[in-house]
Design brief:
The strands form three sheets. A five-stranded mixed β-sheet has the order 3-4-5-9-8. By secondary structure, it is α+β, with helices and mostly antiparallel strands. The N and C termini lie far apart (about 65 Å). The protein is built from twelve helices and nine strands. A hairpin with a 2-residue loop joins β1 and β2.
Length: about 425
């Protein structure tokens, strides 16, 4: 009977473990319940189940392969992922499941177990496999970190390996004598293949770490350029003040009063800098406000900096500085100067500290994994800012989300309230 073989249920469970950290589609729960319910019941609904006549060709059946493909479509329907991720996770899940199946068959044949006892061992092996997969993911990833696969040959290798396992395994059980030795060799080969496939995670993580180091270096260089631009703004204002003061010596009456009023207006920019209760936040806002003014951009802010005391100075600058830099860069592209307005709100709300940033953005950006994809050609370096911000949020057990609607890009950051950092 169809229910004796838990192939499709095991595959789905392992795939869901691998996809648990991926961004979910809208109405995720509804999608998952409906699609998984239909998927799990499908072998019972179709006459003959895995061995339906339209799926069988001689001694060979496409039934199990069809369920594997359907499981890939299911996770693509429920999670936001690209085709390479779908294929790779499905292939890895198939390999893990086949190891479980081989161990179950070895135990059943070696100890001549009854059907019920053999099924209990299969459930035990499956539970152990799920625990190992989950621990593997926890050790290598934090928060919403995921792995994308740049090189198509990895996916091709995974597909070919899965097909070889599928065809040879079914051939050996259908056309030859099934023995403990054969199952042991099958299991051993799958374990080796699994080690190769899962090693991709280690390689991609090393590549990501290298990218982070390069991104930090690039970020330092960009920050140096921003600071230099800020100094240029200050120097220009000082130069203007010097000439205005010199001109005052030769003025009298109404002209002198008018010039003094202009001087006061120029100096008042420094008085307009907000006092947030956190000197580091004040410095960041002052620097970014000067940079924004140079580009004819207005920053409107309501900030309670005292609530950000749990962030170290470095993390605070990376988080808030990056958010404002991205907002200024986007606002610069706005043609109408009256729309070059950035809104920053940061304050405590009940047991959370929230940061909200809005800036004009004429074109809707492309989003991947919940983050906007940079339009610049060097995507690894220029996309680093948003990824580093998400990393910092997860470091403090917070969350970062972004969105776009009606020409406005929004960034929201939530932190649970925490104790101030030991040193600033």
């Amino acid at each position: 009977m169809w229910y004796i073989n838990y192939f499709h249920l095991q595959i789905l469970a392992i795939e869901l473990l691998f996809c648990a950290r991926l961004q979910r589609q809208r109405h995720f729960c509804v999608r998952l319940i409906l699609s998984a319910g239909l998927y799990c019941a499908l072998p019972a609904i179709v006459p003959g189940g895995f061995f339906a006549s339209f799926l069988t060709l001689g001694w060979f059946t496409f039934g199990f392969l069809a369920m594997l493909v359907l499981s890939g479509l299911l996770i693509a329907f429920c999670f936001r992922m690209n085709l390479r991720q779908v294929v790779f996770y499905a292939c890895v899940a198939h390999t893990v499941q086949h190891v479980v199946h081989c161990l179950y068959r070895i135990t059943e044949m070696a100890f001549s177990l009854s059907f019920t006892a053999a099924q209990l061992f299969q459930l035990l092996y499956m539970a152990a496999a799920c625990v190992l997969v989950w621990r593997f993911l926890r050790e290598r990833f934090r928060g919403s970190e995921t792995v994308d696969f740049r090189h198509p040959y990895l996916v091709v290798f995974a597909i070919v390996s899965t097909l070889i396992i599928y065809v040879l395994s079914y051939w050996s059980t259908s056309m030859e004598t099934d023995t403990v030795g054969m199952q042991f060799f099958d299991c051993f080969s799958c374990v080796l293949l699994l080690l190769i496939l899962l090693d991709v995670f280690r390689i991609r993580k090393a590549e990501r770490d290298q990218m982070i180091m390069q991104g930090l270096l690039r970020q330092e260089q960009e920050q140096h350029e921003i600071s230099r631009a800020t100094i240029d703004v200050i120097n220009r204002k000082c130069h203007d003040l010097k000439h205005q003061i010199a001109a005052l010596r030769h003025m009298s009456g109404d002209e002198q009063e008018k010039s003094i009023a202009e001087l006061e207006k120029a100096v008042l920019i420094y008085d307009r800098f907000p006092k947030t209760g956190n000197k580091d936040v004040d410095i960041i806002l002052a620097e970014k406000s000067l940079l924004a003014e140079k580009n004819h951009i207005l920053i409107r802010s309501i900030v309670d900096g005292s609530g950000l005391g749990f962030l170290t100075v470095e993390d605070l600058y990376s988080l808030l500085g990056n958010a404002l830099d991205n907002a200024i860069e986007a606002a610069r592209q706005e043609q109408a100067e009256d729309r070059r307005i950035i809104t920053l709100y940061a304050a405590q709300r009940e047991s959370l500290f929230t940061i909200h940033v809005e800036n004009p953005c004429a074109r809707e950006p492309l989003f991947m994994d919940g983050l906007p994809v940079t339009s610049k050609p060097d995507k690894d370096y220029h996309g680093f800012g948003m990824r580093s911000m998400r990393y910092l949020c997860e470091k403090y057990k917070g969350a970062l989300t972004s969105g776009w609607e009606d020409g406005i890009f929004t960034l929201d950051i939530l932190f649970p309230l925490q104790k101030p950092a030991a040193s600033k």
